[in-house]
Design a protein that fits this description.
The structure holds 2 protein chains of 2 kinds. By secondary structure, chain A is mostly beta strands. Helices cover 0% and strands 53% of the residues of chain A. In chain A, the strands form 2 sheets. In chain A, strands 2, 4, 5, 6, 9, 10 and 11 form a 7-stranded mixed sheet that branches. Chain A is globular and about 40 Å long. The termini of chain A are far apart. Helices cover 0% and strands 47% of the residues of chain B. Chain B contains no helices and 9 strands. In chain B, a hairpin with a 6-residue loop joins strand 3 and strand 4. Chain B is globular. The mean pLDDT of chain B is 93. Classes of the chains: A mainly beta, B mainly beta. At the A-B interface, strand 4, strand 5, strand 9 and strand 10 of A face strand 3 and strand 4 of B.
Chain lengths: 116, 111
């Protein structure tokens, strides 16, 4: 089946630094990728929709200058958390849909970000 | 915004059927019902989806009421590995169409 990977699986960074998270579709081409964040004991919250070769569409309340999303190829999207602060500590999950009309979203395993 | 309502938690005895309800009273005619589950600290896993007919696959069955305002996910023989948070989502089919997750149901399978 379709596999989505994320790298790194966990990262610790210092406050004020930036961190990049990669999302890759391993065996299919993903025209659309999505980024979510999840706080402990809460549900997934959609942050943005990323289409290959175009600017991401951010959900209301998500700062696009803080969460930079790049979808440069059909198999890779990146999320960069800029000037990270402790409140950005969260579980970040990406998902992808195929270009062939699949009805499913395939989710990555998630990246645990801790900002100290 | 999520358009579904689910009970926050349920228990089920191992080996018994787990029936997880979901209300989606404002569902539109072109919206599908999807079910995903999330085991602790992992990405969500697809289970099943349907439009109006009941569906079955190797993991579960999906029963959708005739008016489509509610549905039930059935795990026929629950195992301890089925302990997870189960999310019911309604969505218009299309590669660019988003999922909005509700609060889900935390299912605990008891030995």
């Amino acid at each position: 089946g379709a596999v989505v990977s994320q790298h790194p699986s966990w990262v610790i960074c210092k406050s004020g630094t930036s961190v990049k998270i990669e999302c890759r579709s391993l065996d299919f081409q993903a025209t659309t990728m999505f980024w979510y964040r999840q706080f402990p004991k809460q549900s997934l919250m959609l942050m943005a929709t990323s289409n290959e070769g175009s600017k991401a569409t951010y959900e209301q309340g998500v700062e696009k200058d803080k969460f930079l999303i790049n979808h440069a190829s059909l198999t890779l999207s990146t999320l960069t958390v800029t000037s990270a602060h402790p409140e950005d500590s969260s579980f970040y999950i990406c998902s992808a849909t195929t270009s062939g009309g699949s009805y499913e979203q395939y989710f990555g395993p998630g990246t645990r970000l801790t900002v100290t | 915004d999520a358009k579904t309502t689910q009970p926050p938690s349920m228990d089920c005895a191992e080996g018994r059927a787990a029936n997880l309800p979901c209300n989606h009273s404002t569902i539109s005619g072109n919206e599908y019902v999807y079910w995903y589950r999330q085991i602790h600290s992992q990405g969500p896993q697809y289970i099943i989806h349907g439009l109006k007919n009941n569906e079955t696959n190797e993991m579960a069955s999906l029963i959708i009421t005739e008016d489509r305002k509610s549905s039930t996910l059935i795990l026929p023989h629950a195992t301890l590995r089925d302990t997870a948070v189960y999310y019911c989502i309604v969505r218009v089919v299309g590669t660019g169409n988003q999922f909005y997750f509700g609060t889900g149901t935390s299912l605990t399978v008891i030995p």
